[in-house]
Amino acid sequence: MDREKLLIGKIDYINASPVYYGLVNGLVPDWITMIEGPPAVLNGMIKNGEIDISPVSSAFYAMNHKELLILPDLSISSHGEVLSVILMTNYPIKELDQKLIVLSQDSATSSALVKLIAIQNGVTPNFTTKRLRTLQDVPDSADAAMVIGDAAMSQPWKNRFKYRIDLGRLWYETTGLPFVFALWVVRREAAILRYNDVKAALELFYRSREQGYTNIDKVIAAGSNTIGMDKSYVSRYFELLHCNLDAIKLKALNYFFSSLYENSLLPEKVEKIELLI
């Protein structure tokens, strides 16, 4: 009898390239199928049971934590500046009251972070969410736009907006903590029914990431080609990104989730962050 396929999501931004390097270069066994997509699509697929393991935005995990387990030591995070999660705005944050902020539909975490920052600064903007991949996607009425991923780095947002606020840097300056933008998770059901396969997949992720950092020059070159930016810029980007999940990042996650709940941006408190063991 053929082994049932384990379905694993693959984010289509370059930020996850180090983690997937080995997997896209020969490590994928015949019992794993990789499914590529933007964060919002992968979020929906794992929620609906269409895939077993995937990177998801950390806020999405918080909203669905009872159905998910976090894969240990995997994340997309930064200790300060991140370059790929930015708020472009024509006003300082404290002047955004009643102004229109357009949020990218591709990230529940970054959207939640912008709303939290607004509350902490005592302003109540008007929010709308839509696709934001190019400058042309921004409505004429927008006073600010939150953009993420490859588009945040490659599009000429400064032609439309006056200020560029790096949300990773702002979070670090405000809290002294790193920010965890994305996590790798497994559906609890899959973790129970296919525990050995899930553990084997986790080990493949670790091997894949190790190969990614061993071959970081190739990762940088591919990323440069994908987003059309200089290798030096992409090299700096990967220096700023972290793909592990250590104790300080777990502390930062707890603080972020608690802050969201206390400010009514999360309907239910995350009592405990649960990792696959």
Tell me what the structure shows.
The protein has two domains: 6-78 and 179-262, D-Maltodextrin-Binding Protein, domain 2; 85-175, D-Maltodextrin-Binding Protein, domain 2, CATH 3.40.190.10. 40% of the residues lie in helices and 23% in strands. It has helices at 17-20, 39-47, 58-63, 108-120, 149-154, 167-175, 188-193, 195-214, 216-227, 231-240, 247-262, and strands at residues 6-11, 32-37, 53-57, 68-78, 85-89, 100-104, 126-130, 144-148, 163-166, 179-187, 241-242. The chain has a five-stranded mixed sheet. The chain has a four-stranded antiparallel sheet with strand order 3-10-4-11. Strands 1-2 form a two-stranded parallel ribbon. Helix 8 (195-214) crosses helix 9 and helix 9 (216-227) crosses helix 10 (231-240). The longest helix is centred in the C-terminal third of the chain and has 20 residues, at 195-214. The mean pLDDT is 93.
Write the layout of secondary structure elements.
Elements: E1 6-11, H1 17-20, E2 32-37, H2 39-47, E3 53-57, H3 58-63, E4 68-78, E5 85-89, E6 100-104, H4 108-120, E7 126-130, E8 144-148, H5 149-154, E9 163-166, H6 167-175, E10 179-187, H7 188-193, H8 195-214, H9 216-227, H10 231-240, E11 241-242, H11 247-262
Parallel strand pairs: 1-2, 6-7, 6-8
Antiparallel strand pairs: 3-10, 4-10, 4-11, 5-8, 5-9
